[in-house]
Amino acid sequence: LAREPVPQDLAGRHALVTAGPTHEPIDPVRYIANRSSGRQGYAIAAALSARGAGVTLVSGPVSLPAPPGVALVPVETASDMLAACEAALPADIAVLAAAVGDWRVTHPGTAKLKKRPGQPAAPLSLTVNPDILASLSAPGPRRPALVIGFAAETEDLLANAADKRRRKGCDWIVANDVSLPGDGSPGVMGGDRNQVHLVTADGTEAWPSLDKREVADRLAARIAAHLAPHSL
Ligand code: CTP
Ligand code: CA
């Protein structure tokens, strides 16, 4: 089936997208990670690029190819991801879809950590990672005109998402329920489909269950419509 031509209404805009998990090292052979596949973020990068935006995709470790025309910046840790995002500014649009690790190991081992007989607890202390979304949303001359975050929740989806939007200072939140379905099929994390809510200052919109490319196309169209009245 031939696809309709995509309007080039993001030509001249720079979009920063984050995607994937982060890997937080424990020691040379182990790390803390999560179930993010990167698919939703990669689809968003592709959709923004298809509308003519210049796209920088800062990605944690995933097994996906860079979408054509997108500048890929591979990173491992949350700290690396923050530094890569700051280096990519200025941007008109930031879509932070990465599942950033919330904690890192305070002092990763330079040699493999060993169990000690009789010690039941792991010899690990964790430190909270920097919040990339809150940092890019902070008011200032380098703040992108439109900053969009995701909210991954397993309970109280809309209340938590609205609260995250206010707390972090971003413009929109794409909220998704990441509970595992319990029927053996992949959940949102790792799966192909996504049922999201778009939370803005004006309220909440429920989107139908779509595949991740359709969510990305719809979000890109919304971004273009939002930025359209402004001059380039
Ligand atoms: N995020 C980020 N940096 C972090 C943690 C999260 O930029 N250190 C971003 C994510 O990319 C996402 C949004 O913040 O766009 C929300 O992520 P989420 O994990 O749902 O929220 P947290 O603030 O980490 O809260 P919690 O996991 O405790 O629910
Ligand atoms: Ca988190």
TrEMBL record:
Its cofactor is Mg(2+); FMN. One of its GO terms (biological process) is pantothenate catabolic process. Binds 1 FMN per subunit. CTP binds at residues 102, 112, 130-133, 150, 164, 168. GO terms for cellular component: phosphopantothenoylcysteine decarboxylase complex. Residues 10-225 form the DNA/pantothenate metabolism flavoprotein C-terminal domain. GO terms for molecular function: FMN binding; metal ion binding; phosphopantothenate--cysteine ligase activity; phosphopantothenoylcysteine decarboxylase activity. Keywords: Decarboxylase, Flavoprotein, FMN, Ligase, Lyase, Magnesium, Metal-binding, Multifunctional enzyme. Pathway: Cofactor biosynthesis; coenzyme A biosynthesis; CoA from (R)-pantothenate: step 3/5; Cofactor biosynthesis; coenzyme A biosynthesis; CoA from (R)-pantothenate: step 2/5. Residues 15-232 are annotated as: Phosphopantothenate--cysteine ligase. Its EC number is 4.1.1.36, 6.3.2.5. The keyword Zinc-finger does not apply. It catalyses: N-[(R)-4-phosphopantothenoyl]-L-cysteine + H(+) = (R)-4'-phosphopantetheine + CO2; (R)-4'-phosphopantothenate + L-cysteine + CTP = N-[(R)-4-phosphopantothenoyl]-L-cysteine + CMP + diphosphate + H(+). In the C-terminal section; belongs to the PPC synthetase family. Catalyzes two steps in the biosynthesis of coenzyme A. In the first step cysteine is conjugated to 4'-phosphopantothenate to form 4-phosphopantothenoylcysteine, in the latter compound is decarboxylated to form 4'-phosphopantotheine. Catalyzes two sequential steps in the biosynthesis of coenzyme A. In the first step cysteine is conjugated to 4'-phosphopantothenate to form 4-phosphopantothenoylcysteine. In the second step the latter compound is decarboxylated to form 4'-phosphopantotheine. This is Coenzyme A biosynthesis bifunctional protein CoaBC. The gene is coaBC.
